[in-house]
Amino acid sequence: MNLEADLLDGQHSLSRHGDGWRLERTQVIARPLSEVWAFFERPENLESITPDFLRFHILTPKPVPMHKDAWIQYRLRLHGIPVHWRTQITRYDPPHAFVDEQKEGPFARWVHLHQFREHPEGTWMLDRVDYKEPMGVLGWVAHHVYTGRLVERIFEYRRGVIRERLER
After folding, report:
1. 94: domain range?
2. 67 phi and psi, to 5 degrees?
3. Residues 107-130: pLDDT tens digits?
4. For the whole model, what pTM was predicted?
């Protein structure tokens, strides 16, 4: 994303990045940084901002402590097929950023940066996901046929639910 546009609301892109893809989405949330950070540093809240059709559940015992090197295990279903996902928090910089990296799961790579800044209207948030599908050329085809749209759909859903949950 362009630094001049950095603090705008509603910026989004999906583009090639290295041997995979990069999704970037920004959102301005009309709540103070401290409140937004408190919501996002609780992994349990991920269940409430994930589309129901994924049947997403955290398997790690709750409450899940958030810190660098924390491990979080999830289960979801994609078209009825169970998918297990395990991530590690590889960066934890309260209240400005954290990174979760998939260590086991459906992607060859999934690195998700969550970044937060104070904004005149509340809090500016960036989701940046660098990901790559497995299976080489078949993964590339899957991205164009399905995965790219699915990832965008999930993050578009999150945008609306985050606004509803945090700005009420």
Report:
1. 25-166
2. -165, 165
3. 999 999 999 999 999 999 999 999
4. 0.91
Higher pLDDT, residue 86 or 167 = 86
CA-based diameter of the chain, in Å? 45
CATH number at residue 111: 3.30.530.20
Side chain identity, residue 140: W
Pure H helices in the chain: 33-40, 136-142, 148-166
Decide if pLDDT at 1 tops 80: no
Place of tokens 């996901």: 129
Residues 6+ apart with CB under 8 A from 104: 84, 85, 86
- Has residue 153 been placed in a domain? yes
Closest to 59 (Cα-Cα) out of 46, 78, 40? 46
